[in-house]
Design goal:
Layout lengths: L2 H13 L13 E7 L2 E6 L2 E6 L5 H13 L13 E3 L2 E7 L2 E2 L10 H13 L11 H15 L7 H13 L16 E3 L8 E3 L7 E3 L6 E3 L6 H8 L5 H13 L12 H26 L5 H15 L11
Antiparallel strand pairs: 1-2, 2-3, 3-5, 4-5, 6-8, 7-10, 8-9
Helix pairs in contact: 3-7, 4-8, 5-8, 5-9, 6-8, 8-9
Length: 317
């Protein structure tokens, strides 16, 4: 049995633990994601996730334990340890209502910022590995390098500013050295897709996806909205809502007032490079031109390469 049907069967068994594995028609099985790094399905109120093949099982258990101990911030798993399927760890979660992509004007930036601040201020309830943000950025660069030999011209020229911007980052942001400072409990991959309401549909917001959870530089968790704001892809008022809410909740990643960019600049540049590298690799593999958002990210890398300590136009926040 291939992964998706097998995961579907496991989701049904987890949703109905007393059924003896008998097929259930109470609700359709809904695939939520099917990527090389994650396959996710929903059956009724249960979500099953097959993690990436290279996931460290011991690290995943530590992350699950942390989520279970912080249910007011992180969605708690249904089981404390992962199952196994096709040599991939599988975890089970309660279903939560995600952010509506058709209502991004009402995106819960304040909720996201408040949850992050609470997470960053929480003493880790147990041992944890490093937050995986820099490691994922390095993986995106490796993916771009792998795509370049098969890419048609002018792909190498388009990739050049991205690679130059990557080389200008400090070693810790490239996962080549330990992260600096006192480590905080970090999510590692914050964006609006990592928020759900639980219980669905109107419960409080919670953070999901513990794959990158760990100890590290808390500013990394603000890097994606900061980068999108600096690149002109996130409206200034939405960035202000996010930053203001984070500060009001006592978030330690940035100063309580004044210019936050000294803390945010390196993580925001790293996430910009990561996102641009992934976009280029996908476009090159598909043999298509960059879309407007992707080109804006590459253009930001070009500005970063020419002015190493300036991400883009940087409207004061």
């Amino acid at each position: 049995m291939t992964l998706l049907p097998a995961l579907t069967a496991q989701a049904g068994a987890a949703a109905h633990p007393h059924s003896g594995g008998a097929p259930c028609a109470c609700a359709p099985v809904v695939p939520l994601a099917d990527r090389p790094d994650a396959t996710v399905v929903r059956h009724a109120d249960t979500v099953a996730k097959a993690h990436a093949p290279d996931t460290d099982p011991a690290h995943l258990v530590l992350r699950l334990t942390t989520a279970a101990r912080l249910p007011d911030v992180l969605l708690a798993p249904l089981a404390p340890t992962p199952a196994s399927l096709h040599d991939r760890p599988v975890t089970f979660w309660p279903y939560g209502s995600p952010v509506d992509p058709d209502e991004l004007d009402e995106a819960p930036w304040e909720a996201a910022a408040t949850l992050l601040a609470r997470l960053h201020r929480t003493d880790p309830p147990g041992p944890l590995p490093p937050m995986r943000g820099p490691t994922k950025a390095a993986a995106a660069i490796s993916r771009l390098h792998a795509a370049l030999p098969a890419a048609p011209d002018p792909a190498p020229e388009a990739a050049r500013p991205v690679l130059r911007a990557w080389a200008a980052l400090p070693a810790w942001a490239r996962a080549e050295a330990p992260m600096p400072g006192t480590p905080a409990l970090c999510h590692g991959d914050l964006h609006l897709g990592q928020l759900v309401r639980h219980p669905a549909p109107d419960g409080p917001w919670r953070l999901i996806d513990v794959d990158d959870l760990g100890l590290g530089v808390p500013a990394w968790d603000l890097a994606r909205p900061a980068a999108w704001y600096a690149c002109g892809l996130l409206p200034p008022d939405e960035w202000t809502r996010f930053l203001t809410a984070y500060r009001r909740a006592g978030g330690p990643a940035v100063p309580a007032d004044g210019d936050p960019w000294a803390a945010l600049d390196v993580p925001a540049r790293a996430v910009t490079v990561q996102t641009a590298a992934r976009a280029l690799a996908k476009a090159h593999t598909a043999g298509r031109p960059l879309d407007g958002v992707e080109q804006a990210l590459v253009d930001a890398c070009a500005r970063m390469a020419s002015v190493p300590h300036q991400l883009t136009r940087r409207i004061p926040g």
